[in-house]
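Box S2. Input/output pair 1.
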Amino acid sequence: MSLSTTVPPALYLASRSPRRRELLTQVGAPFLVLPFRGLPREDI
C-alpha cells in the first residue's frame, strides 16, 4: 500500500466562522463544516 493513496485526516468545524474557514483554506487543510442545528440548552 502506498502512502500517497491514503486520505488525509479531515477537520470538522462546528462553527460557521468565516475566519476559521479562511485560515484552513490558506494552509490547505481539508475540513468539513458541521454546524450545530439544535437549540442551546439552558439547564446545563
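Box S3. Input/output pair 2.
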Amino acid sequence: QSKGQGPLNFINEIVPHNIFDAITDNGKMLQIIFFVLFFGIASLTIMPAKIKPVIELFDGLNDVLLRMVDYIIRVAPYGVTALMAGLIIDFNGNASIFSALAMYALTVAAALLSIIFIFYPLFIRIFTKIIPSKFIQVMYPVQLVAFTTSSSAATLPITMEAVENKLGVSQETASFILPVGVTINMDGTSCYQTIAVLFIAQVLGIDLGIGQLLILIGMTALSSIGTPGIPGGSFVILTMVLTSIGIPAEGLALIIGIDRPLDMLRTSVNVTGDAVIAAIIDKK
C-alpha cells in the first residue's frame, strides 16, 4: 500500500496538523469538528473558575455570529434570485430542473411528515402511556407556531407549556430536556440535509462512494447538534456537510429558492421530536 492509503488513514485525516489551516479550508470540516470535540472534552477537566472566561468568550462569539447569520438571511432573497437566474442559464432553460426540484421538495416533505405521523406516534405508543392521537392533538398548535416562525427557539415557551400542562411531563424534565433539544435534537434537519446532499450530488453528476456516504451519515448526525435554532440556520451547517464530502457549496443554489416552506416543515418536526424525548424520559 502506498503512503497515506492504509486502513487507518481515515483517522489520520480527521486529526488536524494545523487547526488554522483547517479553518480556512472548507474540505477539512471533519478536522474542525474533531478539534472542537477534543477542546470541549479538555475544557471539562478545567476548574470552573478558570474556564469561565473562555465560556463567556465563546458565548459572545456565538451571539455575534448568529446575528451575522440573521443579517445574511434578511438579504438572501436578492442573492437567491441571482443564483436561480444563473442556474437557469447553466441548464439552458431546460425545464427538467424544475420537475427535479418539485420531486425533491415532495420527497423531503413526505419524509418529514412520515416522521411526525408515523415514527413519533409509534415511539409515544411504545415508550409512554400517552395515546398517540392525544399527542398529535396536543402538539398541533405547537407545530403550527413552529411552522409559521421557522424557529425552534421562538417556539420553546409554547412547547414547554403544552408538554407540561397537556402531556403531564414534569416541570423538572421539561425545563431541562426541551431547551437542550432546541440545540441538539434536530431530527428534521438531519433528514433534510441527507436528502438535500444526495439531490445536489445527483444533479451535479457526482457519484458518492461508500466512504463519502459514511461521512455523510456521520456529518448529518453531528451537524444537527448545534444547528442554530433560527430561520434558515440549517443552511450554514449544510454548507459544511457539502464541502466535507467534496461537493461544491455552490450547489446550494439548486435548492435555496424553494427551501423556505421546507424549513418551516422541518422546524415542526424538530419541536415535535423534543416533546417526544421529554415525554419518554419523564415516563422512565
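Caption for Box S3: The two ends are 51 Å apart (CA to CA). The chain is about 75% helix and 0% strand.
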